[in-house]
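Budget justification aside, the reviewers requested a transparent look at the raw inputs and outputs of the sequence design task funded under Objective 1. We therefore reproduce one unedited record. The lines immediately below are the C-alpha cells for a 154-residue chain.
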C-alpha cells in the first residue's frame, strides 16, 4: 500500500460514512492537480467498501452546470451515470428534516445554503466526517471536516 493510501486509511479510521462535497467530484472529473492522487485514493477507499460515501442531490446540480453550459451532452450523461452508479456512494434527496438541519447550520455558522444542505445531508445520513476544499466549513462542530488542500499538504 502506498503512502497516500496509508494516510487515507489513518484519516478515515473509525469513520464508516464519509460526506463528500461537490468539489471532490469536479476535481476528480477534471483531473485537477495537485489533488488527483489523494482523490483517487479516497474514491478507491469508498469503491472498495472500506467506508460508504454520501453526497446530496445538490452535487448533481452543481456538477452539471459546466457541461450543460458547454452543451456537452456526453459529459452530462457521464456525470449522471457516475453519481448514480458509483459503488458505495449514496446521493440523497433533501427532505424536510435535512432542510431544517441545514437551516440550523446556516443560522449558527453563517454558511451558504448549498454548503449547509450538503453538510446536513451528510449528518442526517450518519456521516461522521465531511470532505471539502472549503476552509470556512472547518468551523462546523457537528461533524469533523477535512479540507482537501490540507490533506494534500500533509
Amino acid at each position: 500500500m502506498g503512502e497516500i493510501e496509508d494516510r487515507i486509511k489513518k484519516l478515515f479510521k473509525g469513520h464508516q460514512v464519509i460526506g463528500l462535497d461537490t468539489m471532490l467530484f469536479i476535481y476528480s472529473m477534471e483531473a485537477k492537480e495537485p489533488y488527483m492522487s489523494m482523490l483517487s485514493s479516497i474514491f478507491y477507499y469508498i469503491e472498495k467498501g472500506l467506508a460508504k460515501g454520501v453526497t446530496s442531490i445538490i452535487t448533481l446540480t452543481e456538477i452539471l452546470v459546466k457541461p450543460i453550459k458547454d452543451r456537452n451532452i456526453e459529459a452530462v450523461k457521464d456525470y449522471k451515470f457516475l453519481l448514480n452508479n458509483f459503488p458505495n456512494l449514496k446521493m440523497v434527496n433533501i427532505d424536510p428534516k435535512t432542510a431544517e438541519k441545514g437551516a440550523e447550520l446556516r443560522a449558527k455558522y453563517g454558511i451558504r445554503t448549498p454548503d449547509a444542505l450538503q453538510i446536513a445531508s451528510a449528518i442526517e445520513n450518519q456521516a461522521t466526517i465531511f470532505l471539502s476544499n472549503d476552509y470556512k466549513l472547518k468551523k462546523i462542530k457537528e461533524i469533523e471536516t477535512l479540507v482537501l488542500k490540507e490533506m494534500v499538504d500533509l
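The mean pLDDT is 95. The chain is about 55% helix and 15% strand. Computational costs for records of this kind are itemized in the attached budget.
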